[in-house]
Amino acid sequence: MKIGVKILPKSEVLDSQGRAVESMLKNNGRAVHQCRVGKYVQLEVTEANESKALALAREITEFVLYNPLIETFELEVLKGQ
Amino acid sequence: MKIGVKILPKSEVLDSQGRAVESMLKNNGRAVHQCRVGKYVQLEVTEANESKALALAREITEFVLYNPLIETFELEVLKGQ
User: Domain locations in chain A?
Assistant: First the structure.
């Protein structure tokens, strides 16, 4: 089962990469309010049960993928991929 | 309107970061088949119409966010965030 992990910097943390993209887009006439840049990890786990796969992905994300001090994450099950 | 842009390396491209995470997880006893690491960008556009916002996000992604030679991307509308 494929699980997507979206990792973004917390809103109270200065996201310098996001700010750079945002101001560049504004300078180029694209109507953008805000932009945040993070990581996206696609995990293919052997576990076929959806809730167990999600629990494993959560455990893996907390184990190595994200930094709880400055980031938040969200999981999604990727069906039919 | 918030649009999420998920950018991943193409499957035929060597994803060294993903390989590193994958082998590390396997060495630590996590049942993972495959792992791919990419970028996640959250764009908040001023456009309120969903299809126009998606079209703008696609244009922005093709303009600066992804490298068509080695990456693929996917858009998603983030509702209620």
Answer: 2-78
B68 to chain A nearest CA, in Å?
17
Q: Which fold has domain B2-78?
A: Mth169; Chain: A , (3.30.1280)
User: Which value does ipTM take for this structure?
Assistant: 0.90
- The per-residue pLDDT for range B2-39, each reduced to its tens digit, is 999 999 999 999 999 999 999 999 999 998 999 999 99
Q: What is the pLDDT of residues A12-25, one digit of tens each?
A: 999 999 999 999 99
Do B46 and A32 lie within an 8 Å CB cutoff? yes
B:34-53 residues touching chain A, CB 8 A cutoff: 34-47
Cα angle, residue A35 at apex, residues A26 and A61 outer, rounded to 5°: 160
Amino acid at B32: V
